[in-house]
Amino acid sequence: MLKIAVPNKGSLAETAAWMLAEAGYRGRRDGKELIVVDARNEVEFFYLRPRDIATYVGSGALDVGITGRDLLLDSGSDAVEVQGLGFAHSTFRFAGPAGRFGSAADLAGVRIASSYTGLVEQHLAGHGVRAELVRLDGAVESAVRLGVADAVADVVETGATLRAQGLEVFGEPILSSEAVLISNGAGGAEKPGMATLKRRLDGVIVARDYVLVDYDIERSRLDAAIGVASGFESATVSPLHDPEWAAVRVMVRRDETNHIMDALADVGARAIIVTRIHAARI
Ligand SMILES: Nc1ncnc2c1ncn2[C@@H]1O[C@H](COP(=O)(O)OP(=O)(O)OP(=O)(O)O)[C@@H](O)[C@H]1O
Ligand SMILES: O=P(O)(O)OC[C@H]1O[C@H](OP(=O)(O)OP(=O)(O)O)[C@H](O)[C@@H]1O
Ligand SMILES: [Mg+2]
């Protein structure tokens, strides 16, 4: 059985569970269940703290897992990223009182609070900067106001938490993070069931991030319309009863749908219809 680590709490848990359910796997009935055997799919799920998942997978105790790229790199484990899962996007950044710091070089000898001290140490070492790290569990943005640190290094999504504490990001982003599928470096990626898991998750990502767009177009304008959206592989072009016209179907990124509909209408497309993709194998 493929042993899969899944976040049991925090920002990643809900979407990770949703993706696995959409991919046809068994979920847990309540938040107290720590192990779920899915005999039909020959996989076993282990619900663990997101921060611990890279350790379990890197040690080989579990084959694959879902965690954050920032957590994976912070852990220093031997687990490797297999692919991004397209959710929980964030950047990992330094922040401090407005105007106090300009770049990582200004951090020499400074106290930096973070929940990701491994990541910060690696980054500072790469820049030849020595600083004092203060390891905190969360709500790191309060550390400067409370006087336990001069700067912080933390997860930034909208920046609202930093702003509320009067802090500003500075320097280059340390990392761009998202939820990732990880595996054990030593052959974990070839385990039975792994290819199926990957293919199913890819299908969920496509169904989540893409839509189908259908429209009718005069054949004389077909090339212009395909130029607007050429599809995943290539556009499907079907004849209509009127030989001067064709019906076209393309996949487009969901977040570009309205922009593409406008552009298609501009080149003469009619009856433009957008449909959700329920499931996919690409
Ligand atoms: N606001 C956010 N937006 C996007 N991703 C986030 C956000 N906060 C945390 N993450 C991501 O979630 C992962 C951390 O999850 P974890 O459950 O350990 O912490 P958490 O979500 O902050 O939970 P908690 O605060 O309850 O401990 C990291 O990959 C981090 O980048
Ligand atoms: O840029 P923003 O949109 O404000 O989001 C970033 C914040 O979200 C997370 O905090 P969380 O609420 O999980 O609390 P924590 O600090 O205790 O982890 C993260 O640790 C940042 O503090
Ligand atoms: Mg948090």
TrEMBL record:
<protein>
    <recommendedName>
        <fullName>ATP phosphoribosyltransferase</fullName>
        <ecNumber>2.4.2.17</ecNumber>
    </recommendedName>
</protein>
<dbReference type="GO" id="GO:0000105">
    <property type="term" value="P:L-histidine biosynthetic process"/>
</dbReference>
<keyword id="KW-0368">Histidine biosynthesis</keyword>
<dbReference type="GO" id="GO:0003879">
    <property type="term" value="F:ATP phosphoribosyltransferase activity"/>
</dbReference>
<dbReference type="Pfam" id="PF01634">
    <property type="entry name" value="HisG"/>
</dbReference>
<keyword id="KW-0328">Glycosyltransferase</keyword>
<keyword id="KW-0547">Nucleotide-binding</keyword>
<keyword id="KW-0479">Metal-binding</keyword>
<feature type="domain" description="ATP phosphoribosyltransferase catalytic">
    <location>
        <begin position="49"/>
        <end position="201"/>
    </location>
</feature>
<keyword id="KW-0808">Transferase</keyword>
<dbReference type="GO" id="GO:0005524">
    <property type="term" value="F:ATP binding"/>
</dbReference>
<comment type="pathway">
    <text>Amino-acid biosynthesis; L-histidine biosynthesis; L-histidine from 5-phospho-alpha-D-ribose 1-diphosphate: step 1/9.</text>
</comment>
<dbReference type="InterPro" id="IPR018198">
    <property type="entry name" value="ATP_PRibTrfase_CS"/>
</dbReference>
<dbReference type="InterPro" id="IPR011322">
    <property type="entry name" value="N-reg_PII-like_a/b"/>
</dbReference>
<keyword id="KW-0460">Magnesium</keyword>
<dbReference type="InterPro" id="IPR013115">
    <property type="entry name" value="HisG_C"/>
</dbReference>
<comment type="function">
    <text>Catalyzes the condensation of ATP and 5-phosphoribose 1-diphosphate to form N'-(5'-phosphoribosyl)-ATP (PR-ATP). Has a crucial role in the pathway because the rate of histidine biosynthesis seems to be controlled primarily by regulation of HisG enzymatic activity.</text>
</comment>
<dbReference type="InterPro" id="IPR015867">
    <property type="entry name" value="N-reg_PII/ATP_PRibTrfase_C"/>
</dbReference>
<dbReference type="InterPro" id="IPR001348">
    <property type="entry name" value="ATP_PRibTrfase_HisG"/>
</dbReference>
<dbReference type="GO" id="GO:0005737">
    <property type="term" value="C:cytoplasm"/>
</dbReference>
<feature type="domain" description="Histidine biosynthesis HisG C-terminal">
    <location>
        <begin position="207"/>
        <end position="278"/>
    </location>
</feature>
<dbReference type="InterPro" id="IPR013820">
    <property type="entry name" value="ATP_PRibTrfase_cat"/>
</dbReference>
<dbReference type="GO" id="GO:0000287">
    <property type="term" value="F:magnesium ion binding"/>
</dbReference>
<dbReference type="Pfam" id="PF08029">
    <property type="entry name" value="HisG_C"/>
</dbReference>
<keyword id="KW-0067">ATP-binding</keyword>
<keyword id="KW-0028">Amino-acid biosynthesis</keyword>
<keyword id="KW-0963">Cytoplasm</keyword>
<comment type="similarity">
    <text>Belongs to the ATP phosphoribosyltransferase family. Long subfamily.</text>
</comment>
<dbReference type="InterPro" id="IPR020621">
    <property type="entry name" value="ATP-PRT_HisG_long"/>
</dbReference>
